[in-house]
Amino acid sequence: MTARPPTTVLVIDDSAHNRRTLKHLLESEPDVQVLDWAADGEEGLRKVVDLRPDVVTVDLEMPRMGGYTFLRLLRSAAPTPAIVISSHSHTADVFKALELGAFDFIARPAKTTPAALESLRVELLEKVRAARLVRRGGARRGPAAPRATPEWEPQEEIPFIIAVAASTGGPPAVQRLLEALAAEPTPCVLVCQHMPSQFTRAFAERLDRIGPFHVSEAKEGDRLAAGHVYIAPGGRHMQLIERDGRLVLRTPETTSKDRYVPSADQLFESVAKTLKDKALAVVLTGMGSDGAAGARVVHEAGGEIWAESEETAVVFGMPQEAISTGVVKRVLPLGEIGPALVALARRRR
After folding, report:
1. Residue among 45, 44, 23 nearest 34 (CA)
2. Given 78, 111, 132, which residue is the final one in a domain?
3. Nearest alpha-carbon partner for 142 in 170, 183, 173, 116
4. Cα dist. 11→15, 76, 185 in Å?
5. Burial environment of residue 89 by CB neighbours within 10 A (0 to 12, 13 to 18, 19 or more)
């Protein structure tokens, strides 16, 4: 059997130290090869066209041509999955990069301790390998759902709760889903997006500016309200419970045994336990299998599970794992999930 050729990477960063570090980490495994490096976006774009790497890593702040301009031009010049390497001090910049077509991002550790570098190495290799599987030019996207101005104010009564799980490729997908839901902004949406703790608040603040939903990072004891979106806080889980006749959120700490943080399985299981046959869980793009076990629990409680189709999922891992359980009721392209949820919400009102 012929061995698969290594995944090739071009590193774009204006810091020579960062370039050496990334090259060392990437080539710590034999199935990844760094073809070359570039010190700015202009040089990087030329080398992408010439070398045709499988994946690009890119810093956002660089001389001559920064990361944003590079990402805009990359889509037309030589569509290639790009992983943004960002510092914790530039959290808001990451989401702009994702909207410009970046495949995913990695938070650069504040301190280069051995433990921090090992964590960076594992995440970097995992995401580079996943990025190689993405079709050139990215996943096919349907047209964005039209924005709508609500004809009512969000109500205190919660007629409809939607639990959403996403990982790689998730931030733009979650944003598109909420934009589509703007036509019926009465549901309450619980979002479990795999993301470092320093970024979830910025993610919530960005989503809060796009439409009629009020979006916030979930806090312990938050009482659910219609028209609200709660983002699971990075580094903690998010669970739904009933307390004194009200639906509230818990944000328990994680343990060393937790594979995914925050955990979609824990969110889905808590929604199933609390809402029974009214539970609805949606699995969007992402690596891994988080959400599959929770999907089974939702199904056993009489609820529904939907999943994003391979047609639009940036990474089909999480949706595919959920579908493989045999309990997913609907498999839809991202552009059709929002309108379908709007129709269901109106039937349940």
Report:
1. 23
2. 132
3. 173
4. 11, 19, 42
5. exposed
| Same domain assignment for residues 203 and 269 | yes
Q: Is the pLDDT higher at 99 or at 320? A: 320
Q: What is the rounded CA–CA span in Å between residue 92 and residue 218?
A: 18
Q: Mind listing the pLDDT tens digit for each residue in 44-54? A: 999 999 999 99
Neighbours of 221 (CB within 10 A): 10
Which segments of the chain does DSSP mark as H helices, in order?
Answer: 16-26, 41-51, 67-77, 91-99, 114-132, 170-181, 197-208, 264-275, 292-300, 317-324, 334-348
Which pair of structure tokens corresponds to residue 2?
């012929």
Question: What are residue 121's DSSP bridge partners?
Answer: none
User: At 106, which helix (H) or strand (E)?
Assistant: strand 104-108
Q: What CA–CA distance (Å, rounded) separates 252 from 236?
A: 6
Q: pLDDT class for 121, splitting at 50, 70, 90?
A: very high
pTM: 0.84
Point out the residues that are catalytic.
167, 194, 290
Task: Count structural domains, the chain.
Answer: 2
Q: Are residues 219 and 331 in the same domain?
A: yes
Whose structure tokens read 């960076």? 120
Tell whether 257 and 119 lie within a shared domain: no
Q: How far is it, in rounded angstroms, from Cα 149 to Cα 118?
A: 47
Q: Which carries the bigger pLDDT value, residue 256 or residue 303?
A: 303
241: containing domain? 161-348
CATH at 42: 3.40.50.2300
Specify whether 198 is located in the same domain as 90: no
The position carrying tokens 């349907």 is 142
Nearest of 289, 277, 288, 349 to residue 325 by alpha carbon: 289
314 has pLDDT over 70: yes
Of residues 86, 85, 87, 83, the one with CA closest to residue 102 = 83
What percentage of the chain exceeds 70 in pLDDT? 91
Rounded to the nearest 5°, which phi and psi values hold at 93?
Answer: -65, -30
- Residue 116 and residue 209 in one domain: no
Same domain, 127 and 170: no
